[in-house]
# Entry
Amino acid sequence: MRDHTRRDFLKSFGGAAAAWPFAGRSMAQHGEVAEAAGQRRVSGSVLMPPDQWKPLGYAVVGIGSIAMGEVMPALTKTKRSRLTGFVSGHPDKARHFAQLYGVPENNIYNYDNYDQIASNPDIDAVYIALPNSMHAEYTIRGAKAGKHVLCEKPMCTSVKDGEAMIAACRAANRRLMIAYRLHYEQYNLEAMKMCHEKQFGPIKMVDAEFSFVIGNPKQWRLDESLAGGGSMMDIGIYCLQAARYLTGEEPLSVYAQTWSSDPGKFSEVEENISFLLSFPSGVIANCYSSYGIDGMDRYRAAGPQGWIEMEPAFVYSGLVQRIYKDGKFTTTWPSTWDQFAAEIDAFSAAVQLNRDIATPGEEGLRDMKIIAACYQSARTRQSVALT
Amino acid sequence: MRDHTRRDFLKSFGGAAAAWPFAGRSMAQHGEVAEAAGQRRVSGSVLMPPDQWKPLGYAVVGIGSIAMGEVMPALTKTKRSRLTGFVSGHPDKARHFAQLYGVPENNIYNYDNYDQIASNPDIDAVYIALPNSMHAEYTIRGAKAGKHVLCEKPMCTSVKDGEAMIAACRAANRRLMIAYRLHYEQYNLEAMKMCHEKQFGPIKMVDAEFSFVIGNPKQWRLDESLAGGGSMMDIGIYCLQAARYLTGEEPLSVYAQTWSSDPGKFSEVEENISFLLSFPSGVIANCYSSYGIDGMDRYRAAGPQGWIEMEPAFVYSGLVQRIYKDGKFTTTWPSTWDQFAAEIDAFSAAVQLNRDIATPGEEGLRDMKIIAACYQSARTRQSVALT
# Structure
């Protein structure tokens, strides 16, 4: 069934997917979700007749800011996906949102009885929106309960955990996707395409920086045991992703330096990290993330004929693309794309139509390995080779 | 005389100079030239009565593109400076420009009889606009001939040469300035001031990138013996300068990687260099220069309250400043400032009024040491400490 569907899909796509050179993924895998989410399409796609799938039911695991502010509202806009359950340590909060979103109270679980979702047919998948260090446990338990797993970034806090998550999903024959939402966002998809098609000639430099000033000093992001690291884990990972998806290459080595301006606030994790990635073609990416700088949010990929830039590049909406090519500038309107809706429907489509996923567990694991190398480089002040 | 003039100047400046913390230099030293060059002023200044000085007469040494396109036209706009001689290996070219700019034919010299400028009272100073590796010899011979020296960047091609240039000018009691024109440019001066006054809070990151696609593969910039290096020497030095003048700090260590996409064209010097500078406050600067990328020309300095950016930052005119502070953006019109006129008149003012120079030989020498460390780092793939 899977091969058949995939073949039909590629056929309908007119062969463009095969010509698109991004690390073995097809443009279609990124782009098809646009139509599924009812938004403007990036490129040609085909929808299966609606009777061949039912909307995928999601339980949101963890009711923090990203779940409340982004995931739940997005699930009111999705076409292939709906909100059908909650897993939370706060029963009152869960009941509040269950009422708000019309979710039956029976579909509320806590961290102890989480595994009982196995017997709930309303729940096909879980959206893991917990602090980083909990991603592995709740992904593995979700898969063992027979559910597909869409897990927030970073995938986890160690390479070992990432491998265990992939193995658990594979063993349970469940799909696993990391919520790298920019792989499902129009302007970023266009940027990837332009770079991979060498529209500026071969890319020779990428830079990327992402920062915000972190508030509450008691939050989990500053707790190493929950976050697994500092600004690198939370936002530097976007810079790393951009460097990888714009070049379409995997880094051969990294060099990184970390520092913090406030040793009290940043006693466990780094405030600032500068990291440099060296790619096989020679291109170097300069990246910087910080929990102590306001409002940096951009990347640029540059070649002999010019460059493409996004600023903002990484936030949830309002992204702006700026292109300099052959001596002329063009710029776009800010995006209004709902990145979360697109991302969630992309996962649903992959499950429903048995398609490949643009950002599977393996994609998250690759980042975990590179981030571990960055931290090793920062500790040793040596360049670290990646294998 | 020197102390007296300097004291009067500082007094008239109302004490602001003393409060301005840039590495021992005063804002006045940078800013006063604005009025001397007849352009909009950056900050308060005072001119000496005109009878206390006569315009400084400059011989331009080397008639290449920067001399023809920038230095000579600028010398028609200066108030304290005038074009009075040429030193060139091309007598026809020299005669052509002597006629064009009303310079007596007797004031044309070649590289053999250059030292005879000693007896020419029309020539008070030389503007060294030769390929990099010739800067040392022609600076030293100029000083020995009793002339003040304004020398293009990079100062030279080795630390040893830089030291010899400073020693020669000191021995001859002549002034030496490196033509770092952005120290005499309005928006860059404002950027320095805002950063040093911590208007964005303490700066936590600087990035800078400068690139163009180099044309003629036979040009001296690609010849190691003439250029002393590749894009780092020619344009990366602007990124290095920006990191230093925006932070107002000197780097403790550097890490750099070089690479070239075309081993034929770049057989002697690097096409691309990425370098990372670590400063005492912790701040890291990420810099990139390239001879193979079109149109990168910017820097940003960022802190907890926002950032200041210039793009373009480094070219001769049309610079634009962009500020993000407290959640709001502001941007300037492109600059129309004549950077070369301001820079040349600043040197004349320093000679005429016996003032300190914002960018003396020592400033150039510091860059030569850092550049040497960058190349060492690129060779060894190790971070290199600066002493």
Q: What stands out?
A: Residues 361-380 of chain B form the longest helix (20 residues). Confidence is low (pLDDT under 50) at residues 1-46 of chain B.
